[in-house]
Amino acid sequence: MDFTPHEFAELYQEIYKDLYRYARFVLGDEEDAKDVVSEAVLDGFRQRQTLKKREAFRGWLFAILANKCKRKKKEYVDRRQYEQIPTGEETIGPEEMPDGRSGDLSGHAALRMMFFQLGEEERTILSLHLFAGYSSVEIGNLLGQPPGTIRSKEHRALEKLRKEMKEL
């Protein structure tokens, strides 16, 4: 199905805040988040004819964005900047949480640092669930894993964070 530019824009309008929130939390840098979202949307627009179903748009564009974020984080490592994890002074505020949820989890510097100590897959699963609102079925489809596996990995990652928080 080849989406017209207008149809693509309508679908993008529905999810742009979630795209930004995801990138902002994963990367920890506002400007880099804006850049990767812009790159992902541009790539998606160029490849829009490859998308077969309108219902798959959200997951498809998030998959493009997740890959852009991975590449950007690799740049951080290559430049030795990834070790300088933001301390929380420039974090996402509660008004930016998806679906009007309250509680500024990202505002806690210790939690943010612990989050970045998780494995990449664990961070991806938690980010997609907590910040983009994906279900375990949707995340499983994106990552090519069964929903039960996604739930188990999410549970283990959350347990790691809880354990670390107790030790503080």
The count of strands amounts to 0
- What value does the Rg take, in angstroms? 16 Å
Q: Could you spell the SSE succession in H and E letters?
A: HHHHHHH
Determine the N-to-C terminus distance.
52 Å
Q: Which of globular, elongated, flat, extended, rod-shaped describes the shape? A: globular
Mean residue pLDDT: 78
Unreliable residue stretches = 85-107
Portion of residues in helices? 55-70%
Q: Count up the domains.
A: 1
Strand content: under 5%
| Major β-sheet annotation | none
- Number of DSSP helices? 7
Structural class: mainly alpha
In short:
This protein is mainly alpha-helical and 168 residues long. 66% of the residues lie in helices and 0% in strands.
Sequence-ordered SSE layout with sheet pairings:
Layout: H1 5-27, H2 30-46, H3 57-78, H4 109-117, H5 120-130, H6 136-143, H7 147-167
Helix pairs in contact: 1-2, 1-3, 2-3, 5-7, 6-7
Polypeptide structure, described:
The protein is mostly helical. The protein has one domain (5-167). Helices cover 66% and strands 0% of the residues. The protein contains seven helices and no strands. It has helices at 5-27, 30-46, 57-78, 109-117, 120-130, 136-143, 147-167. Helix 1 runs antiparallel to helix 2 (30-46) and helix 1 (5-27) crosses helix 3 (57-78). The longest helix is centred in the N-terminal third of the chain and has 23 residues, at 5-27. The relative contact order is 0.12. Residues 85-107 have low confidence and may be disordered.
